[in-house]
Known about the structure:
The structure holds three protein chains of three kinds.
Chain A: H1 2-7, H2 9-29, H3 36-52, H4 58-83, H5 89-95, H6 97-111, E1 125-129, E2 132-135, H7 136-158, H8 160-170, H9 172-177, H10 182-204, H11 212-216, H12 219-228, H13 234-253, H14 264-276
Antiparallel strand pairs in A: 1-2
Helix pairs in contact in A: 2-7, 2-10, 2-12, 2-13, 3-4, 3-6, 3-10, 4-10, 7-8, 7-10, 7-13, 12-13, 12-14
Chain B: H1 2-5, H2 7-31, H3 34-59, H4 67-83, H5 89-109, H6 117-138, H7 158-181, H8 183-193, H9 195-200, H10 205-231, H11 241-254, H12 259-278, H13 284-300, H14 304-320, H15 328-334, E1 358-369, E2 372-383, E3 387-391, H16 398-406, E4 413-418, E5 421-422, H17 428-434, E6 436-438, H18 451-459, H19 465-475, H20 489-502, E7 507-511, H21 519-536, E8 539-543, H22 547-553, E9 556-561, E10 564-570, H23 571-576, H24 578-584
Parallel strand pairs in B: 3-8, 3-9, 6-7, 7-8
Antiparallel strand pairs in B: 1-2, 1-4, 4-5, 9-10
Chain C: E1 5-14, E2 17-27, E3 32-36, H1 43-51, E4 58-63, E5 66-67, H2 73-78, E6 81-84, H3 96-101, H4 107-112, H5 133-146, E7 151-155, H6 163-178, E8 182-186, H7 190-196, E9 199-204, E10 207-213, H8 214-219, H9 221-228
Parallel strand pairs in C: 3-8, 3-9, 6-7, 7-8
Antiparallel strand pairs in C: 1-2, 1-4, 4-5, 9-10
Amino acid sequence: MIQGALAGLAAGGLYAVLGVCLTLMSRLVRVVNFSQAATGMFGAFCAVWLVTKAGLPIWAGSIIGVLIGGLLAAVIGWIAATWLSEADTTTRSAMTVGPLLLLISLSFILFGNKPQPFAPIIAGPAFTVGGVVISQLTLATVGLAIVVAVAVHFLLARTKVGTRLRALSERPTTAELLGIRSRPLQVAVWFVTGIISALVIIIVAPSQSNDATSLSMLIVPAAASALLGGFRRLDLTVIGGIVLGMLSGVVAQIGQISAVRNFLPFLFIVVLLLWSQRKEVWDAAR
Amino acid sequence: MPLADNRWVRRGWPLAVAVVALAVGYALSVGLNGYFVFLAVSAVTAAIAILGLGIVTGSAGMIALCQLTFAAIGAWVTAGLNYVHAPGGFVVWLIAGTTAAGAAGVLVGLPALRLRGVNLAVVTLGFAAAADVTLVQIQFPGSADGVGVDRPTGFETDRSYFFFSVIVLIVCALAVFFLQRGRIGSSWKSVAFSERGTAAAGQSVQSAKLTAFAVSAALGGVSGGLLAGQVGLPLASSFSPLQSLALYVLAVMSGAHLIDMAVFGGILWILVPELLKRWGIPQDWGFVIFGVLGVQALTSGTNLGQGIRNMIWKRQYRRRAAGRRVDAAAAVDGIDGVADPVTTTTVATSKGATAGPAVLTVEGLTVQFGALKALDDVSVEVPAGSIMGLIGPNGAGKSTFVDAISGFVRGHGGRVLLDGHDLAGLSPTRRARLGLRRTFQQDRVPPALTIDAYARFVARRRLDAEDVESTLAFFGCPPAHARLSSVDVGTRRLVEVAANVLARPRVLLLDEPAAGLSHEEHLALATRIRELPERFGISVVIIEHDLDLVRSVCPRLTVLDFGRVLASGPQEEVLDDPAVMKAYMGETEML
Amino acid sequence: MDDALILDDVTVSRGAGPVISHVSLQVAPGEVVALVGPNGAGKTSLIESVSGVVGHSGGDIRIGETSIGKLSRVARSRRGIVHIEQGRAVFPSLTVRENLSLTARTDAEAKAALDHFPELEKRWDAPTGLLSGGEQQMVVLARAFAARPRFLLIDEMSLGLAPVVFTRLLPIVSTLAESGVGVLLVEQFTNLALGLAREALVVAGGRVTYQGDAQTLRDDPAILHEAYLGRAA
């Protein structure tokens, strides 16, 4: 059982990082970004292409791939900030379904349907705990999740940019009236989360099913993690992702209910939502 | 246009369209070449699925990303019943599949009752992803043994099966049409626009959302069952999450809440990949195109169907010009017993002003928002058959008062009694149904409805066309068939008042009903409100700023200031109180 | 002579019709212009059209000779237009210090705001969402101070505040005006507002029903009463 849990820890770190990105986007730019993983996926595939077809060294291809992921996210963010700045969260989020669809299909066209030949950047065991091997990958993803969460917290709480971002997310109109330029700040948030997603996907992709759809669908466990934090709290998101990963690992080991494994994120989501909204709340907008 | 006003035409035209569609379908089934017939069945099944999406997304305003998963459930049950040779034949299995999908929709939608649009999207995507993996593992019944789904007797050939699918499409379209036109359809559009407005009209928000989800999922199930009959051996790949995403985007882009656009969407679903195939372009570009068009539709806030409709309606509206409230003056003269509106500073008393037991009693109402005491020990009595004005400076707590009485504020101190019954713990929906109705200061009237549909929805009782027309005319509203989107905010709120009057409540709370109306319309409304107790037996509480209107309409007044009752009683007493005048003009003794 | 804020026959529309029409006024630096009238008259919409929260459908808005009607909210704020919104627009999760840091260039400037509002000293690190209404309004005013405005648009500063608190805050507006800021003041405490202003406009039913000397209006309540009821005096 513990083996299963630790085996799922790497995935847990992945879910946590993506979940943190989703939480950030939700808090700061009022969007649930359904294309969060898809932009990362596309950047990762570009990296693979650059390494295998264009002959770039792995580190160069990876960096360019990460940048591409960030730029794609920034473009989507620019569209949202320009045309949907006054729209509600639902409409802004619905708009991101388009790029999700688009990117998956585009990747089929450009890179084919078969799994991509990822060369692992981070691999191998890190250390052993009580007979169980903790891989470097696990360290990397969980570490990244914690580092990002802490860094973001620090940025928001202690820096001037962070204050502006928080102001912008609480009362966008008042912030603009005070001279805070909302569009560049919003696009910057999209860009940064795009970079982070691309980075973590490039790291993780070699070790799991890495076709375009599977990678893009990481949005589901990511959202499940973010839901534990109510799309607001970063610490709970990290915990949620790690717990979800470990749970999946445990369930995978138990043969009888392994079919249920697929439904785990879904059930996680439903239970969390029902719990968090057990008191009836009126739609704040109308 | 005389033809359009004929009652039989208005009732019967959907059936006429259905018959024509049937004929067209038959002609196509005979006339099209074999390859196209097969494609056409796919277009029909897609159209039915999109029709479902149009309800949950287009009408009810929620994001649903698992429509094809419901289709998979329908296909699975149909194939399963076929495999075990269940009695009844294809049609029965199709209905069973539909029911199963609808039930799944209810289950998936239950979390949606508390969820708003985005959270529901996450749930449905999670459901789609999970079900897809499961489906790939367990496959469809009969696929292992190569046992295909038997088509209905008499419709075995491709051509006749196409005609069968057209019949199913027409049945579904008619069902959706009549649902959309009735109370349920109005509840969907209302809940998409404003949950508070829906609850205040006595409609449960939960059941509106749940019925939208169930009907939508059922239509998905029909689509899946039909597909199972078309291909015999359905594949999991036809129902993947990616396909559901594409279908969602297509539905949003084409405006699928309109039935004709849903059919058009089904045609596009087939047409775009076919065209790409002909031009030698990889089929995946189809979804890329859908993605781009979807983004365009969502950023521009409009869709294809609505764009076409708006163009047609603009022409019709210009021609009609009857939607103007300019006719209000004429309408007033035409109504028996209603005098011309006059500016009056004399006190108008209604005969039942002080008679009768209290219909609404508020005792010690206290509302606290954090550190702010919005209402402090407010006690008020509204006698039956009277009109009470609620005045006071901005921020005095008047709207909070109405919110608390109508049930939108939880956890307040004090009691609210309607005809002596304590309303504690009752939701706004329940209170509305018990006869406590309110209007809103903000515009909560769904523009997607016609005035007639909205009025019937709010009234919640059987109404003759004459009832509706005469009440609307009494208030000087545009004709019943006009669309709420085509009238301005002030008129919409006037319609809100008229519709709530049609509900014949015990008490009607009006929150600044005249805001947005011109001075003359203000006075005309005042005249109508004066009539409400005698004409309709409704007691009224009205929040207003216009002292002129208040003086001519309200024999009783309550003045709120900083959440406290400053004065309450007959109009002359209250307005003579110097403290009241000071508070109203914004001054107090301390200054 | 510094440029004045000029509204030239401005009309603001919402949805299907005009909310307030044909308003012309000038606010010179150091001058206070009061805008009074019953609710729903369109005063807030007018203020919002000046700061750019909403657009205007007729007329022009200028600072001196330069038209600002097409500029964004951010651009207008860069030109020195500070809009104090109705209802105490603080950022609830930000502390007093953080709220002020949004407009003050340095920490010293932010602290300087405490000169006018010593009560805020002990609340310096408290999230403004937890402050009382009066304290929140002080934060808003301090923030406006620190923004070094040329023109201040104040929308019902007194809303929901006890009179005693309001009398504490009103002199700040005078101080600001004396330092050369042009103030457009929307208020429902009419007498106090008129006491500060040189010129006053009464807006009722979407139209200006009185425009002239504030003192005259203050001295003769009958004019005000008539104007409130929508009849031009």
